[in-house]
Automatic annotation (TrEMBL):
SUPFAM superfamilies: S-adenosyl-L-methionine-dependent methyltransferases
A biological-process GO annotation: methylation
The protein's name in its UniProt record: Class I SAM-dependent methyltransferase
Pfam families, per database record: Methyltransf_11
């Protein structure tokens, strides 16, 4: 099996392999047509969503088989549509590690000047290190950064950079898994993928954010608000959207003042 995987990686570029995985999931979606679940990102309905697992944590009905949206993505889009002017007014948006489902929507929104970036050029339109964002101060009206900061070695620098490129009055929408611990847990001695998977639940995660995450975001010129928007969504719609349990879906709204 390992030999086959090695041959496959040599035969196809990373970008092609990523697209192949997406297309395979879409094929699965053809057999899941129904009305039990609804994706607000691609506006498709299914009998069920795909389950999601990292080998430790298993989530049922997590991923849209068509566009790949997750629980947190669907919650975030509801917040964006109902609580912000991002999609209706002329805005400039920086989207870090862009979710494909949202990237498609933002590309199709005429009023947006849209920049999306990732450390891996195969995953975004621009290659960018979040700890050294190559845009001037006060450039963007909105910044979106979801489930990224836990993977960044110099988290403080990354947060500083996200806020630096925000205009005054601009808003950053940040998501990260929040664990039922008071203080964020990190241990620099966990260096191997096996150690990180065992202790953090993901092989490339560097810390587990706790209840202090809002405090870690605080800066002199920023207002930070923690929002569990699942509770604002109509109960029947929330059930169809499959909005998760609040562990991954909290939104930290950060406004520059």
């Amino acid at each position: 099996m390992n030999a086959i995987k090695t041959f496959y990686k040599k035969l196809f570029s990373e970008k092609i392999r990523i697209n192949n995985r997406k297309n395979l999931k879409k094929l699965n979606g053809l057999f899941l047509k129904g009305n039990n679940f609804y994706c607000n990102c691609c506006e498709q309905s299914f009998s069920k969503f795909l389950d999601k697992s990292n080998g430790i944590d298993n989530r049922e009905n997590a991923e849209c088989p068509n566009c790949g949206s997750l629980e947190r993505t669907r919650v975030l889009l509801e917040f964006i549509k109902n609580e912000t002017d991002l999609l209706v007014k002329p805005n400039k948006l920086l989207h870090i590690a862009p979710e494909d489902a949202l990237k498609t929507i933002f590309h199709q929104t005429d009023n947006l000047r849209y920049v999306n970036a990732d450390i891996n050029i195969n995953l975004a339109d621009e290659e960018m290190d979040i700890t050294s964002i190559n845009y001037p101060d006060n450039t963007f009206d909105y910044v979106i950064c979801c489930h990224v900061l836990g993977h960044i070695a110099d988290e403080k620098k990354a947060i500083d950079e996200l806020f630096r490129v925000l205009k005054k009055g601009g808003k950053a929408l940040i998501q990260t898994p929040i664990h039922p611990i008071n203080n964020t847990f990190e241990n620099s001695e966990f260096k191997t993928e096996e150690e990180r998977l065992k202790n953090y639940g993901e092989k490339d995660l560097l810390r587990l954010h706790g209840q202090d995450f809002q405090e870690r975001l605080k800066r002199e010129n920023m207002l930070i608000k923690k929002i569990d928007y699942r509770n604002k969504i109509d109960h029947n719609l929330a059930k169809k959207l499959s909005v998760g349990n609040g562990y991954r879906e909290l939104i930290f709204l950060c406004q520059k003042v």
